Amino acid sequence: MEKGISPAVIRRMPRYYRYLGELLEDGVERISSNDLSRRMHVTASQIRQDLNNFGGFGQQGYGYNVQFLYDEIGKILGQTHMNHVILVGVGNLGQAIANYVRFEKLSFKMIGLFDIDPSKKGKEVSGIKIQMVDELEDFIKTHQVDIAALTIPKESAEPIARKLTELGVKALWNFAHVDLDVPEGVIVENVHLSDSLMTLSYNITKMK
Amino acid sequence: MEKGISPAVIRRMPRYYRYLGELLEDGVERISSNDLSRRMHVTASQIRQDLNNFGGFGQQGYGYNVQFLYDEIGKILGQTHMNHVILVGVGNLGQAIANYVRFEKLSFKMIGLFDIDPSKKGKEVSGIKIQMVDELEDFIKTHQVDIAALTIPKESAEPIARKLTELGVKALWNFAHVDLDVPEGVIVENVHLSDSLMTLSYNITKMK
DNA sequence: TCAGGCTTGTCAAACAATTAACAATGTAAG
DNA sequence: CTTACATTGTTAATTGTTTGACAAGCCTGA
Predict the structure, then answer these.
(1) SS3 state at A132
(2) pLDDT single digits (tens) B95-106
(3) CB A83 within 8 A of CB A92
(4) Which of A98, A140, A167, B7 lies 20 to 30 Å (CA to CA) from residue A197?
(5) What is the pLDDT of residues A79-110, one digit of tens each?
(6) d(CA A147, nearest CA chain B) in Å
(7) Rg for chain B, CA atoms, rounded
(8) Is A16 on the interface with B (CB under 8 A)?
(9) Are A147 and A164 in contact (CB under 8 A)?
(10) How far is residue B67 from each of residues B24, B25, B26, B27, measured CA to CA in Å?
(11) DSSP label of A54
(12) Residues 80 to 139 of A: which have CB under 8 A from any B CB?
């Protein structure tokens, strides 16, 4: 479809998607890059340039049809098909993420929870029974797993990631505070809470 | 101290800090930008350029002293003083974040938890009693609050943010999936899990 | 149906970030 | 003490991103 879209552009797409979703809820049918730029506090030029990476979705003299554009961005972001997610590490954060995926996004489905702690075996979180990490192999071989969320301590992140990728998992959503070394073709999306907090703390310090 | 450091640089500083911390644990005393670049998979040039935004921490022919550089970056990131954090919205994610802040980072201290649900009143999470949102005003007036974490639904994010900033809170760690409109001088650090997941899903789709 | 006004898609210019190159300077070994 | 080498800090070149400008073309009201 497209080739070599810059990461900067891709990071902005979910934000467009969100604003368009809100417009849709508000019953807005059409929007110009100018109106949208005012709402989103970005330049109209950037919006047009970003969208044109993927195709010409607008119409001169009219603007963009909100529903159409929303659907198109949805397609781009892979919101048209179901993504099956498993999660490894059912601690506090793991449970929160499990619930988050369960309720927040329709195109993602949590299908398995795994932990290393035997005392958690069989307990239910968000309606799913917790399994042991050594059951991962069986599970992945018998289920379609698109994404594995890693909410584990940084010490175990590397071995678990290796195991998962060896079993064919192609996308990791990594919450462990470590950079994972994965084979070619595997995607890692990091959520480094610690980095985020430190950035905040830097900005606070700078302000003073 | 410094002026106009680019956001791109700042985003990288916590990563340097982490790697230096690991080197320190491993008992490494000195490191060259070249060695570090190999470990971190970035260019040596970028490392030198980034660090030089804040001062000349290295020595020709020697490299960087790990302990010294670690401490300096710590200072830059505001890790030398305690940051007092409160959290609003003690749901699944809120509890996870409360625990996270409690155990993960020494320079941040969770000092208050707030929720709107009366049934949660007085319950303890991570050793802290949950208070009601209408007690926020009293609390902020009588305690030093550096950061407020917002783990609430997007509908309540805007009014709560307004209330907090009116009460003088200068930094928000926002987990709600909405862009907050805050007064000049208030810092917002967003953690948009949904955006992160969608970026992942985009990359999966693209790969196929 | 037509003219005037919008608004896009796109090209070019301005700006920002990254990488490369290298002179200056310190290290370290003999 | 001296020389060969390592490595920084910094300047210059390159690459990438954002903004500005405008022709082309559709919309809308008369």
Answers:
(1) strand
(2) 999 999 888 778
(3) no
(4) A98
(5) 999 999 999 999 999 999 999 988 877 899 99
(6) 9
(7) 20
(8) no
(9) no
(10) 7, 10, 12, 10
(11) T
(12) 83, 91-93, 95-97, 99-101, 104-105, 107-108
